[in-house]
Write a structure and sequence with these properties.
Distance between the termini: 98 Å
Structural class: mainly alpha
Mean pLDDT: 87
Shape: globular
Strand content: under 5%
Radius of gyration: 30 Å
Number of helices: 40
Largest sheet: none
Length: 866
């Protein structure tokens, strides 16, 4: 370090430097001088070299002091988090002791996993997963102006003009567009709050004036372009006023190009170029994430859009929502598990392992498996899951997306059975299911856009909005677009899958359910808060699962001071907005008002989102980790497992969440009531769904007097309706056998292709009829995305596909009808031969007790019963 620099730093610090500090401080001074030059290049250039050095030294000293203070803050936060988790785990053990429940192998490790992910058996915890979900949803609710500014036709496309205006406003350019201004203002407010909150939790995110929104770089596109072309394309787009030497002189083209070469290495190596060989690898400290300095600065909005169109990977909406999720996740990790979340969790997971092995040494394998699962769960929650081979993962995900796009056009009918989860969740929370259903219908009404917007602002039912513009963006549906064919297929099929769920009405239905149940929960929570003085007075008998949630007394007292909102319901509604609206002076006796509001609002929305996720059956990190069966994404085995579990997520989550909650209800009566509501409503709505599917397909109603009908309904209500066909025959109507069906759509598609080729050839050699022409057309029809919607499929069949199948295999429709009648007794109100129906459904077929008695007798004979 130069003597003048050394003197300046020592003067700023007020003490002599040690020998080891000089080199580190010199680089810090140089960094601070460059950062100061970026903020105001003109003023910086006007300073003398001595003045610039003094300012740099002062800023470096302040940065060093900030680093010391940040370390102290992190240590203090880490100790506080450790004590809170330790107390919660100890309370859970005491709760078991008081209830005279034996600690079974895996119980303590499951308790520890509650730190990470929502667990219906967890008591006294609000997990990282829930906390992150709550922070993100509250932020998304406040970003409704942004969504409205960029939303295009039917919420499927980004509005190009809206995107351009928004980006220009974010770059400080006046567009005269009021919607874009409101959107930019909302974005800045939200990200500033997230940044302040993250830093209060121990992270260290600097505020950059030019941080308009996060950048997106496609590793594949940048690598495909090559170093020379990428640098030559990027260099003219940069704000050269940001690239200065410490003395204020502008960097030359060659110097900026050298900097870009380093950026290129970082992008194309996915950051590996910055790693040290042999250095420890892993998640690292939560507090160290999101603190890197930006290296690429664009001179204006047009330059940014030019770069993103050529080298970006995602559209605007997905970039913004991805950033919100990432900051929310890291903030939640720090707030729930401390600035060094990995170390915190490893400690409690290791401790639980030690305790488990001492208590149950004969169950070592089960205990070690639970321990390993917890380690995997951390990676799911922290967003640090390893993808071994991105191309393999892209291919697997593209297949799964395509199956969703082509197979789930009727999911809105199938999902009627989901209402059983709403009924059971309402019971568990001691709120009326009928009121929840009424609110759900209100939110479905096309004329209630205002009510939907109010709920969305409160963070309720915004899943469709969040994922909305991930469907179609500015990349214009290019299959590869420079990102590679596998990644291009993944992106395109993801948009088609999302579009299918949107156009089928399923998204709207699920969001209406979340809003319906969520609004009722907030309403009755407001009523409860007003009537109960302390959270310790909450009990399971009167208030349900609320008593088991990780809500603090401070949260409760803050909620009591909130003025409830009027949503036109029986009671006022306690919302995050009502919490934030509490005057600071009312909270000052309890502590820092901002901190109290922040925590209370997140705890409120977290509880509601956990329960709406039970009602609508969101598949959380715990369930996804279970269903991966220990495999890794990006491996052939891992992708096969994920494809095998496709369409089984609802039923698997139902077993892992609802049946676990049923067993955890406080009394035997509650356990029976919960299970009864779940099974009864599921059965009834499964039956309704099957009848609706039949009517939409042109079939007469099924006979409800037949025992097999109710077995089929039970499977439909449990999310396994596809397997109901095996109650009638060894093969489905599409000639799918049981084993491939259990293995998932990849196996069933492979079986279908074999039946159309090799299987058909063998049948032909034996002189059997194959109908391969009709079956090939049926296979094609079933694999055209957006075609098989519940409201268009019957019309398309009768106007096009049935005639084509009959032409390809004469007599096919008669054979298909005969087979359906023999196997299921199916008759048709809209004959497959007819373009238009000639009769109405025969509802007399709905109740045929004599046929039901015959079927029951056949079942008894098959089972060998008298």
């Amino acid at each position: 370090m130069k003597p003048a620099c050394l003197d300046a730093v020592e003067k700023a610090l007020g003490r002599p430097l040690t020998a080891g500090e000089a080199e580190k401080i010199e680089s810090q001074v140089n960094l601070q001088m460059r950062l100061a030059g970026r903020k105001d290049p003109t003023a910086w250039s006007a300073l003398s070299s001595t003045q610039r050095l003094e300012q740099g030294a002062k800023a470096a000293a302040e940065a060093m002091l900030h680093e010391v203070q940040k370390k102290a803050q992190r240590l203090r936060l880490q100790i506080g988090v450790h004590d809170r988790i330790d107390n919660a785990l100890n309370d859970r053990m005491e709760e078991r002791d008081e209830a005279a429940k034996r600690t079974k192998p895996g119980d303590l490790l499951r308790d520890a996993s509650g730190i990470l992910a929502f667990d219906v058996k967890g008591h006294g915890f609000t997990s990282v997963e829930t906390w992150a979900h709550s922070i993100a949803n509250e932020s998304f609710g406040r970003l409704m102006p942004l969504w409205n500014a960029v939303k295009g036709f039917a919420g499927l496309f980004e509005d190009a003009k809206g995107v351009s205006s928004l980006v220009r406003e974010l770059f400080g350019e006046d567009t005269g567009d009021a919607d874009a201004k409101a959107a930019a203002r909302a974005w800045h407010q939200v990200v500033d709050e997230l940044r302040d909150r993250a830093n209060a939790a121990g992270l260290d995110i600097g505020k950059l004036d030019e941080w308009h929104y996060p950048q997106s770089h496609s590793q594949a596109r940048v690598a495909l372009a090559g170093l020379a072309k990428w640098v030559s394309d990027t260099l003219p787009l940069l704000d050269r006023a940001k690239y200065l030497h410490e003395d204020g002189a502008s960097m030359s083209d060659e110097e900026v190009s050298d900097m870009l070469r380093n950026v290129y290495d970082t992008i194309t190596s996915d950051g590996i170029s910055k790693s040290e060989p042999g250095a420890p690898k892993g998640y690292g400290s939560t507090a160290s994430r999101l603190s890197q300095h930006r290296a690429v600065f664009y001179k204006d909005a047009a330059s940014f859009l030019t770069y993103q169109a050529k080298y970006g990977e995602r559209n605007l909406w997905s970039v913004l929502t991805g950033h919100i999720r990432a900051v929310s996740r890291d903030t939640a990790l720090a707030e729930v598990a401390g600035p060094n979340a990995r170390a915190t969790f490893d400690y409690f997971n290791d401790r639980a392992l030690k305790q488990e092995m001492a208590l149950n040494p004969t169950a070592a394998n089960k205990i070690k498996s639970a321990y390993k699962f917890n380690q995997t769960l951390f990676d799911y929650v922290a967003g640090s899951r390893e993808v071994v081979n991105q191309k393999i993962q892209d291919v697997g995900q593209a297949f799964r997306n395509f199956e969703v796009a082509s197979k789930l056009g009727q999911v809105v009918i199938t999902a009627l059975g989901d209402e059983a989860g709403m009924a059971a969740t309402a019971f568990a929370n001691r709120v009326p299911w009928t009121e929840s259903m009424a609110r759900e219908l209100t939110y479905m009404s096309p004329g209630n856009a205002t009510d939907r917007a109010i709920a969305a602002h409160a963070g309720l039912g915004i899943n469709g909005i969040i994922g909305g513009l991930n469907r179609f963006g500015q990349e214009d549906l290019q299959l590869s677009g420079g990102v590679g064919s596998a990644a291009g297929a993944r992106l395109l099929t993801a948009k088609l899958a999302n579009a299918t769920l949107h156009l089928s009405g399923a998204e709207a239905m699920w969001d209406a359910r979340r809003r319906g149940l969520g609004s009722v929960l907030m309403s009755y929570l407001g009523k409860t808060v007003a009537s109960v003085d302390h959270f310790a007075d909450i009990n399971p008998a009167d208030h349900g699962v609320l008593a088991n949630k990780g809500i603090s007394e401070a949260d409760w007292q803050v909620w009591k001071k909130a003025e409830l909102e009027d949503w036109g319901m029986k009671h006022g509604v306690l919302t995050p907005k009502s919490v934030w609206s509490i005057p600071d002076e009312q909270l000052q006796p309890l502590g820092d008002p901002r901190t109290l509001k922040r925590h209370a609002a997140t705890a409120l929305l977290g509880h509601v989102l956990e329960e709406t996720g039970m009602g609508v059956m969101d598949t959380g990190a715990r369930e996804r980790a279970r269903m991966s069966i220990g495999t890794t994404a990006g491996t052939v085995g891992g992708e096969l497992v994920r494809s095998g579990m496709l369409f089984k997520g609802f039923s698997a989550s139902m077993m892992m969440k609802h049946w676990a909650r049923a067993s955890d209800m406080p009394t035997g009566r509650d356990r029976v009531m919960y299970a009864t509501k779940l099974m009864t409503v599921s059965l009834i709505l499964g039956a309704v769904a099957n009848q609706l599917r039949a009517l939409v397909a042109g079939q007469d109603p099924h006979n409800i007097a037949e025992p097999v009908f109710w077995g089929d309904a039970a499977l439909r209500g449990g999310g396994l309706g596809f397997y109901g066909e095996f109650l009638h025959s060894e093969l489905t109507s599409h000639d799918t056998s049981l084993i491939p069906a259990l293995m998932g759509p990849l196996a069933t598609e492979a079986e279908t292709i074999w039946n159309l080729t090799g299987g058909a050839a063998f049948k032909a050699m034996r002189g059997e009829r194959t109908d391969e022409g009709a079956h090939a057309l049926r296979f094609i029809q079933g694999n055209i995305p957006l075609l098989n919607m519940w409201y268009t499929r019957a019309a398309m069949n009768h106007l096009l596909w049935n005639d084509l199948q009959e032409a390809a295999s004469p007599g096919y429709l008669d054979r298909m009808q005969n087979r359906a009648f023999i196997q299921k007794g199916t008759t048709w109100w809209w004959d497959p031969h007819e373009g238009l129906p000639s009769a109405a459904p025969d509802f007399g077929k709905l109740w045929q007790p004599e046929l039901g008695a015959e079927q029951l007798q056949r079942l008894k004979d098959t089972a060998g019963l008298q």
